[in-house]
Amino acid sequence: MSETSPKLRAELEGIPTYKPGRSAQSAATAAGAAAGGPVAYKLSSNENPYPPLPSVLETVTAAAGSFNRYPDMMCTSLMNELADRFGVPVSHLSTGTGSVGVAQQLIQATSGPGDEVIYAWRSFEAYPIITQISGATSVQVPLTPGEVHDLDAMADAITDRTRLIFVCNPNNPTGTVVRRAELERFLDRVPGDVLVVLDEAYREFIRDAEVPDGVQVYRERPNVCVLRTFSKAYGLAGLRVGFAIAHEPVAAALRKTAVPFGVSQLAQEAAIASLRAEDELLGRVGSLVSERTRVAEGLRVQGWTVPETQANFVWLRLGDRTAEFAGVCEQAGVVIRPFPGEGVRVTIGESEANDIFLKTTESFRKDL
Ligand SMILES: Cc1ncc(COP(=O)(O)O)c(C=O)c1O
């Protein structure tokens, strides 16, 4: 066998690997659930805790009968449905394998070696990965002490090498938002040849009326693109379908960079069925928002500082107690998402899971 191995691109050196939220099963095994320990709830991936709606499941089951065929590559029915739903031309839409897939296509389409991609930090952990894969340079702008995007500093960070800016609204993992006036002021400072991506993966969980709908912002600004997903509010995380709304030529570039047949027929049919069952799904979102209020208020009563969250998770900045706290949660039966040395992100889940989390924070707080 030859001693040499295939040459890989230097950009891949040292790339951070995406850490998926730990599954309840692996945590349960670690915590001894197999030996009669606590049942673990997964609050580590910002998933929707509700099972699929019967109507959506039925549609997907029926579609499964033809998975020997390739899916509709153009996602025609879904694109038409989305175009009607948002009042945008089909030519301004592009679907992908989750919104993270579309985000990666946006970087591929805009940024390569020598180019810069600006985003807040900490924010969605895929941003540094997909930027580095493209060979572009990440420019990470620290969040304010209140855990919010520092839009002035982000505008100051723009150079003639900047190609793309992510604004994650609400921000993962802090749940914080940027509001209309500050976003407009920021966008006024961004040159027209820099693409601004409003990542609205958690849009449906927002209750703050001052947070702009990215689709309205896109209508007025040719360099703004909106990312949405069916993974969170619509509960289709496992089926992988997200989409962008963007002006030409960005939308056309997305069609060029798409992996052929990347969105399965099951995902397409499930997304359409979910749009048609939207009232029911948004009712579930409403219940999760009520749970969010209960959890955030419960934490504050216990004495925690909790940034105002508009997403389906809360953020606790625990610093060097982060890993220890995550371990205590697992022992209690809930798996959360630690960012070692920084803090924990905890998804709002089933009310029993939220109760366990609140009990755990209460006793941990006494030891702080
Ligand atoms: C801010 C943000 N954007 C995008 C995504 C990607 O979601 P998906 O690829 O499932 O659409 C996530 C998932 O956690 C996220 O938090």
Automatic annotation (TrEMBL):
EC number of this enzyme: 2.6.1.57
Region annotation (Disordered) ranges: 1-23
Entry-annotated residues carrying N6-(pyridoxal phosphate)lysine: K232
One of the Pfam families matching this protein, by short name: Aminotran_1_2
Organism: Streptomyces spongiae
Cofactor dependency: pyridoxal 5'-phosphate
Superkingdom assignment: Bacteria
Keyword annotations of the record: Aminotransferase, Pyridoxal phosphate, Transferase
Domain Aminotransferase class I/classII large: 42-357
Protein family according to the UniProt entry: Belongs to the class-II pyridoxal-phosphate-dependent aminotransferase family.
GO biological process: L-histidine biosynthetic process
Record field: transmembrane: none
A GO term, aspect molecular function: histidinol-phosphate transaminase activity
Name of protein: Aromatic amino acid aminotransferase
Assembly information from the UniProt record: Homodimer.
